[in-house]
Amino acid sequence: xxxxxxxxxxxxxxxxxxxxxxxxxxxxxxxxxxxxxxxxxxxxxxxxxxxxxxxxxxxxxxxxxxxxxxxxxxxxxxxxxxxxxxxxxxxxxxxxxxxxxxxxxxxxxxxxxxxxxxxxxxxxx
Amino acid sequence: xxxxxxxxxxxxxxxxxxxxxxxxxxxxxxxxxxxxxxxxxxxxxxxxxxxxxxxxxxxxxxxxxxxxxxxxxxxxxxxxxxxxxxxxxxxxxxxxxxxxxxxxxxxx
Lengths: 125, 108
Fold this sequence. Notes:
The complex is a heterodimer. By secondary structure, chain A is mostly beta strands. In chain A, the strands form 2 sheets. In chain A, strands 2, 4, 5, 6, 9, 10 and 11 form a 7-stranded mixed beta sheet that branches. Chain A has a 4-stranded antiparallel beta sheet with strand order 1-3-8-7, with no helix packed on it. In chain A, a hairpin with a 5-residue loop joins strand 4 (33-39) and strand 5. Chain A is built from no helices and 11 strands. The chains are: A mainly beta, B mainly beta.
């Protein structure tokens, strides 16, 4: 079965650090684009970061310089290292596979086709 | 960075047709993908590309696009379709993604 399972969330003080994990099964993390998406309480979805199959990484401006996405190919696991956490980072963090692609002469899309169940991160003193 | 704009809320009578729209400059280059999210659950992909449904998504869900606007149409809305719906696409930079603010669909 293809699935993603996140872990590592919890309560952390402002300025603190936390590392989220996302264990994949049924497919290979390193062969796919993998991403983190977050959702603050009562708010919409916000894209956070991506790691391409080739290893390139990109971040939303709101987390650039503070968060680091990585993967462990031997464990088939995706990570998000979060440093210098702020209250506004409080959210449910989802990992997702970008695994469904479409292209024609009019455009292109790649979709987040597999999502984990999410892990809650609360930044508060 | 690019933005995608959605109406915050839409309602539809049971069995009727509803269209949810998404506007943004990035949609001139990229097709939108659409996600359904029910309370306490992770999002689920319902439409991608020009008008493609993943396996298991009912055919009452369809997508379309024109210019800078993408639309998700539910033909014959069911009670179980009541949810939040989000559009997303790559950002104009090509190496980041953007989500719309979401549309809360109420089935009356």
